Amino acid sequence: MPLASPPDVSYLSDYAHDWALVDVETSGLVARRDRVLSIAVLTFGPDGVQTGEYATLLNPGCDPGPVHVHGLTPERLSGAPTFEQVAGRIGALLQDRVMVAHNAQFDYDFLAHEFARARLYLPVAQRLCTLALNRRVEPPVAGLGLAALAEYYGVPQTSAHDALDDTRVLAGIFRSSLAEAARLGVPLPLVACPPRQDAQFAPKPPKTPCAYRNPGRPAPGDPLVQGMKIAVTGETATSRAELVARAVDAGLNIMSSVSRHTGVLVTNDSASGSEKARRAVAEGVTIVDEHTFLKLLADVRPGTPYEGPTRGRASVAERPAAPAAPGPVAAPPVPVPAGAPAPAFVPAEAPAPVPAPAGAPPRQRPAAPYPARPFGRRRVLVLGGTHQEASVVRARVVELGGAAAINLSAGVTDVLLLPGGELDRRMARVTALGIPVHPQDWLGTPAAEPLDAPAGNGAVAEVLSRGGVIDLPTAGQWHVAASWAQLADCEIDVVAFVLDEDEQVSCDEDFVFYGAPESPDGSVRLRCDGPTEQSIAVDLAALPPAAHRIAVAAAIDGAETFGSVGAVQVVLAPGVDAPAVAQATLDAATSERTLLLAEIYRRGPRWRFRAVGQGYDHGLEALVRGYGVEVE
């Protein structure tokens, strides 16, 4: 049940900060392009007492966008101040406080761009997302939108999409969420915020996508064909911009790097020793000089156009239909990036048996009288044991139809102890919360859950094992979120690659990571929701026609391995605050530093999602090069 009167947590230093709660209404969803139309800021002290309030409409100097959503017409905004005129006051409210918002990266990015336009510094050093906080808490609600959480926590909401009312609702949700986090011992997902006042944070203009499939390399003396991949290196008499423009106009695909799929490298000095030239020689790529290439451009033969799915747009808030085929479906082998070292392990459709830890029960399915999958309503947290022992037990939980948790939350129904688990720092909370604790032989004789028992989080997500696949609708946005336990002193980066049919990026900007958190066309974005959770948002309708696969990976910055980090949980949802459609708990073995988490890929006219869990011993750089990204 929600807390009617959240207790004071100001005496707990981990939960006591000076806060600035923020909500913005905007003319669109893209911070580098759209503008803030209204803003509200409420400030609170560590004791939860409100210390300030400010709200104003803003004149954006542009079309206000979806008036049917926010109700802010040009007439209402015409007499309002510009952001530049109130930036100083807003900055003073944010200074030396933790910024709090629901889907905080959205509000933070818009403020960062507005401050940059005003040539001012955004004074936010840390932010906290109440959406990410409630993902950790896991209250029993189907979705984590502001309205759903307000209803659960008993917070009245009078005017949705009004910045001031939304911020007041946020304040009530935040107080209750903080109290729940303190009750569960959940660390706050505070995010350190880098300076964002420079224009360098805006993505580069999108590369013109090639509309034709790659026909491969030309034979000696043969003409070029539309869709061939062309790379250029070194000095040219024709300006590089003109050379690229003429090639693109002819239907060729200009690449920023050379791989085994490159058709032609254009260079006036093949012996220059450049990285592209060396790779072209090693891969047997056809090399021509500028003069020859210009002659070939005069007679480029027709290529085969891509035939992608219908590219209709769906609303961000629109919930796609359920997967066409429930449960796992057959999936192709996981592609290995060109030139990348072999993975530490390659999953088959059914993972190979792993030796069970000492004393663990046999891994055959349980017999009657209970069903073959009795864990359908259970979420089990495994504590103790070695990483390999814990991974075997988590896999067994999934075999029994349950979900394997990686953190303590309100959604955890059971705790299973392996040797040493009783010393885990979370056991005191587990005992205080009254969560059932089981020995490791419990998996051999579990009690069946009632078939009509409600799901712990108000919704049922498909639990996928490693290699599991589900079908997706062809339109709309999908979020692939990754999270892990905060048990290792290391940085983990989630990244994404937009790949063509050759499993290569079309340009370096199709590598999405912390330094370039958005693909040029905005179809793939990185979101940082906390120190142990990051997500990739994919707009299937906005992807270029050549996009065949979006690979999502995680990499450790440093010498640690995923063996010390433990399991990584991957959740697929059709919106930033929508109920999960699928989830998987992925265990790398012991030595991996890079982990391919999941992929969204085309199969005929449909898109599919696959939980991968394929690890590599090498670092991120080798994976990046293998997908055709130039690394400086």
TrEMBL record:
<comment type="similarity">
    <text>Belongs to the CAPAB/TerDEXZ family.</text>
</comment>
<dbReference type="InterPro" id="IPR012337">
    <property type="entry name" value="RNaseH-like_sf"/>
</dbReference>
<keyword id="KW-0378">Hydrolase</keyword>
<dbReference type="Pfam" id="PF02342">
    <property type="entry name" value="TerD"/>
</dbReference>
<dbReference type="InterPro" id="IPR036397">
    <property type="entry name" value="RNaseH_sf"/>
</dbReference>
<dbReference type="InterPro" id="IPR003325">
    <property type="entry name" value="TerD"/>
</dbReference>
<protein>
    <submittedName>
        <fullName>DNA polymerase-3 subunit epsilon</fullName>
    </submittedName>
</protein>
<dbReference type="InterPro" id="IPR013520">
    <property type="entry name" value="Ribonucl_H"/>
</dbReference>
<feature type="compositionally biased region" description="Low complexity">
    <location>
        <begin position="313"/>
        <end position="322"/>
    </location>
</feature>
<keyword id="KW-0540">Nuclease</keyword>
<dbReference type="InterPro" id="IPR051324">
    <property type="entry name" value="Stress/Tellurium_Resist"/>
</dbReference>
<feature type="domain" description="Exonuclease">
    <location>
        <begin position="18"/>
        <end position="183"/>
    </location>
</feature>
<dbReference type="InterPro" id="IPR036420">
    <property type="entry name" value="BRCT_dom_sf"/>
</dbReference>
<dbReference type="GO" id="GO:0004527">
    <property type="term" value="F:exonuclease activity"/>
</dbReference>
<dbReference type="GO" id="GO:0003676">
    <property type="term" value="F:nucleic acid binding"/>
</dbReference>
<keyword id="KW-0269">Exonuclease</keyword>
<feature type="region of interest" description="Disordered">
    <location>
        <begin position="301"/>
        <end position="329"/>
    </location>
</feature>
<dbReference type="Pfam" id="PF00929">
    <property type="entry name" value="RNase_T"/>
</dbReference>
